[in-house]
Write a structure and sequence with these properties.
Layout (H helix, E strand, L loop, with lengths): L2 E4 L4 E4 L7 E6 L10 H19 L3 E8 L4 H10 L3 H18 L7 E4 L4 H13 L3 E4 L2 E4 L23 E2 L11 E7 L16 E3 L1 H13 L3 E7 L3 H16 L4 E7 L2 E3 L2 E2 L10 H4 L3 H12 L7 E3 L1 H22 L10 H17 L4 H21 L4 H18 L6 H4 L2 H19 L3 H13 L2 E6 L2 E6 L1
Parallel strand pairs: 3-4, 3-11, 4-5, 8-9, 11-12, 13-15
Antiparallel strand pairs: 1-2, 6-7, 7-9, 9-10, 13-14, 16-17
Helix pairs in contact: 4-5, 4-6, 5-6, 8-9, 9-11, 10-11, 10-12, 14-15
Bound molecules: adenosine monophosphate and zinc ion.
The site of adenosine monophosphate has 19 residues, from helix 1 and strand 11.
Length: about 475
């Protein structure tokens, strides 16, 4: 049985969706005022991994992700850059979609843009006002946290001593200043032409109410899983609970899944402090990008990931080892071989599931895979595999890849197919030359490859190549 760490109970719980094998999942999506950084993206890799594992275990999924295309930050950026809000947010939404594709992250069923759901937000706020959970003040509407006794539970906050009636207008604030927060913000000059009409006058929704309205619209008043990184626990997710449960009188979410931070130089990667790298900054080649996915996948999501050039390089060489193994398995052509592979496959599958079931412990699950990688390398070097057993192993590694998603082709690589064939031919001719001990021919071919950006390395396991 799958166990998940639920932030609400601060413990691992057996995962039992509300409706049999159907899982309804909401992920807080990006605020599209800037390029996503690799910390943001790592959180979406984790969501992807979770979705892949659920599918592998026979669950079906309905996944909604929002795009925050109107809030304090997007409006500020549009003003600073002097471009209309929609132009700015469309630009960064397109960049985000490209990043998702580069990282082999499967699509959500629905990407909901906040600006397309303003009516839903207004009617949720109206319900909260009618029920006495919200009040108007000078054209803005605030949520009265004193009305919601459970306020603070998700974040582990003690309401005692909180200022009754004190308000906060910003979307983001610290735990210490938990206050009545804005559901609707009256128009100010800084908002320029960004406003909608409502019974409280011109204004725009607060960030927190956006997610409540869109999640419940598409997933129902109560749904299974809600994700984000740990920075969203307070105030964002706490406020979502307060808004949704006050409006419906029903529990909002069954399992809260939060990813620990990706850090750089010892502190949290963040857009707001500029302490950040984008995927294109760290990913000069497809191999770098895939290594980043591998790095995130192979680290447990509740362990912080300290990103450095060195760990990326190490992940790159691990990926080379793995792809090399798959290539070698594909070329085994033998009817004689003594290795008994099926027991190893069955054992590895069992351990992999056991560890993934334990709150998605990918660090252990990947280690299980490596036991088999090592065993397979041994069989290959002893010539102990038949074509059939090599195929069984190859298929099993692809089965694990349904969950890990680490072997894939980037869109950039696809255009290179014909070139790759030429290059593969050159590599093969060079290997033949080496076999024939024709060193000058081999050296000449190596230089030709280098001119095409391919570096060759001869190792005990055979010839390896990489793009330079
Ligand atoms: P944002 O675009 O700022 O709204 O954030 C998008 C997603 O990235 C949210 O789920 C955040 O919780 C998450 N996030 C922000 N910073 C980090 C970080 N340093 N490491 C991992 N996830 C992060
Ligand atoms: Zn959200």
């Amino acid at each position: 049985m799958l166990q998940l760490f639920n932030t609400m109970s601060r413990s691992k719980e057996t995962f039992t969706p509300l409706n049999g094998k159907e899982v309804r999942l909401y992920s807080c999506g990006p605020t599209v005022y800037n390029n996503a950084h690799i910390g943001n993206l790592s959180t979406y890799v984790v969501v992807d991994l979770f979705k892949r594992y659920l599918s592998y275990r026979g669950y079906s999924l309905l996944h909604v992700m929002n795009l925050t295309d109107v809030d304090d930050k997007t409006i500020r950026a549009s003003r600073n850059e002097g471009v209309p809000l929609a132009e700015l947010t469309q630009r960064y939404t397109a960049g985000f979609m490209k990043d998702l594709e580069s990282l082999n992250i499967g699509h959500a069923d629905n990407y909901t843009a906040a600006t397309e759901h303003i009516d839903d937000m207004i009617s949720l706020i109206e319900t909260l006002v009618e029920k006495g959970f919200a009040y108007e003040s000078e054209g803005s509407v605030y949520y009265k946290i004193a009305m919601f006794p459970e306020y603070g539970k998700l974040a582990g906050l003690d309401l005692e001593g909180m200022l009754d009636g004190a308000r906060v207008d910003n979307d983001e604030y610290a735990k210490e200043s938990a206050r009545d927060f804005a559901l609707w913000k009256a128009w100010t000059e800084e908002d320029g032409d960004v406003f909608w009409e409502s019974s409280w006058g011109r204004g725009r929704p607060g960030w927190h109410v956006e997610c409540s309205a869109m999640a419940m619209k598409y997933l129902g008043e109560t749904f299974d899983v809600h994700t984000g990184a740990v920075d969203l626990i307070f105030p964002h997710h706490q406020n979502e609970i307060a808004q949704s449960e006050a409006a419906t009188g029903k529990p909002y979410v069954k399992y809260w899944l939060h990813r620990e931070f990706l850090n750089i130089g010892g502190s949290k990667m963040a857009k707001s402090t500029g302490n950040m790298s984008t995927l294109s900054e760290i990913g000069r080649t497809p191999a770098d990008i895939k290594a980043f996915r591998y790095l995130v996948v192979a680290t447990h999501y509740r362990t912080g990931l300290n990103f450095t050039e060195e760990v990326l390089e190490a992940a790159k060489s691990t990926m080379r080892r793995l792809t090399n193994l798959l290539d070698r398995l594909e070329t085994v052509d033998s009817s004689g071989g003594a290795a008994q592979v099926s027991d190893s496959i069955v054992r590895t599958r069992q351990l992999f599931i056991e560890h993934m079931d334990d709150d998605l412990n990918t660090a252990r699950a990947v280690a299980d895979m490596f036991e088999l990688v090592q065993e397979t390398e041994g069989w290959l070097s002893q010539g102990a595999l038949t074509t059939e057993s090599a195929t069984a192993l190859y298929d099993f590694f692809q089965e694990l890849n349904q969950v890990l998603g680490i072997f894939y082709t980037l869109p950039e690589e696809e255009g290179e197919v014909s070139l790759s064939e030429d290059l593969a031919d050159l590599i093969q001719r060079r290997e033949q030359a080496r076999k024939n001990r024709d060193w000058s021919e081999a050296d000449q071919l190596r230089d030709e490859l280098l001119a095409e950006g391919i570096a060759i390395k001869d190792t005990a396991k055979g010839t390896e190549w990489e793009r330079v």
